[in-house]
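Pilot study result, target chain (459 residues):
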Amino acid sequence: MLKALMLRKKLDDKKKILEELQKTAENLQIRETELEQSIAEVQTEEERTAVENAVDAFETEKRNHELQTTTLKKEIADLEQDLADLETKQRSANLERKQPEVRESYMTTTANKAFFGMNMQEREAFFRNQEVRDMLQHVRTCIREKRSISGASLTIPEVMLGLIRQNILAYSKLLKYLNRVHVPGKARQNIMGSIPEAVWTEACGKLNELNLKFNNVEVDGYKVGGYFAMCNSILEDSDINLATELIQALSKSIAYALDKAVLYGTGKKMPLGIVARLAQASEPDTYPETARTWKNLSATHLIAIDSTTTGLKLYQELVLATGVLNTDYSSGAMFWAMNPKTYTKLIANAMSINSAGAIVSGQTATMPVIGGAIEKLNFIPDDVIIGGYGDLYLLAERSGVKLAQSEHTRFIEDQTVFKGTARYDGIPVIPEAFIAVSIGGTAPTATMTFATDTANANA
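Predicted structure:
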C-alpha cells in the first residue's frame, strides 16, 4: 500500500509539471508568431543581427522544452504502468490470501517466526510458488504411498536454489571474502605479471621494449555433498518445518566442507587450500606450465612465534609477520581465521585496565593495527592463525545443485533419505598474499583430516 501511495504522489507531481510545460508551449507559440512578424519587418543590418540572435535563442529554448516534455511524458507513462502492475499484484495477493488452503497451512505455524530472513509476506509468497509446492507435495506423496523412486532426482526450484546458496553464504565463514565465480565447466583465470619499469632516455632516443607476461590457472569442479536420513514424521509436518530441515542440513554440510577445503584442501578431488599451498616445499608434478613461476613459500609464509611471547610484543610479532604478504594484486580487504580458543588467547593478551579502572581488551572482531575481519572455525588447530587477501583466492562454483530422495533405503526405520550435492574447485592464485602464523612456537602444518570417502574406496 505504501509503495502504491508513493507512486501516485510521484505521478501527481509530474502531471502538475507537465501542465506548466503545456502553458509554456502556448507562450512559445505566441513568441514564434511574433518572431515571424519581426523577420518580415527587418530593414537594416543591425535589425537583422538582432532578429537572428533572437531566433537562435528561441530555437534553443524550444528544443529544450520539447525534450523536457518528451522525457516527462515517458516518465509519467512508466509510473502509470508501474502503478497498474503493483495494483494487479496486490489484488492477486489479496485473492490468494483468501484461499482456504493457503490460510490453513499457516494456522499451525508461528506467524511472526522468521524463516531464513523472510518476513511473513515473503515466506507466504515462497511457499505459494508452484515449483516449491510441487516438490514438497511429491515428497509427501512418496512417503504416504510407500513407493520406491527409481532414479528420480528432484532439481531444486530456482527460488529454493537461491535459498540454499544464500545459506551457504550465511553458514560459510570464508566464502564472502573470496573471488567467487560461477562457471559451467573448466575455467581459466589470467594473471598479469609484474608491471615493468619504464626506461628513461633522450628526448629523441629510441624507446626500449618492455617485458610483460601473462599467466593463468585452471579450475575444474569437484563434487561435495552426502546424504542424511530424516524421520518421516518431520516430513509430514508443515511446509516450513520440512523446508527448514532440508535447507539447513544441506547448507551446513556443504559450507563446513567448503571452508575446510579453502584453508586445508589437498587439491586432489577438492580445492587446493591456502595452508596446503604454503606448505609445499617443492613444485608439484602437476603444476601447469602456463602458471606463474612456482615459489617455495614454506620458509617465509609459515611463521612461528615463540609461545612465551605475550601482550604487546605478541601483536608486534603478528604485525611483522604480515610484512611478507604480496599486496600488489589485491583490491580487497584482509581476513583472519582461527579457532575460538586462539581468539580467546588474543583477547587475553590485549587486555588492560583503562583510566576508569575497568578491564578492557583491544582485541575485537577485527585484528588490531593490521586490520581485517576475524572468523572463528573450530577445525583450525590451536594457536594457528591463517589470513591474507581473500580476493586472491579463486573459487569456481559449478551449476547444478540438486536434491534427491528415496524412502525405501530406510524403509524399516520409517525414514526418508535425502542427498545434497554441490561442485566447487579453488586455488590461491597469488599464494604470496596469504600467511599462516602459529603463536604456539611451532610452525603451522598442512595436516588436516577430511571426511573419508568410504563410498568410493574401491573406485
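One observation from the pilot: Residues 98-113, 146-156 have pLDDT under 50 and may be disordered. A full batch analysis is planned for the follow-on phase.
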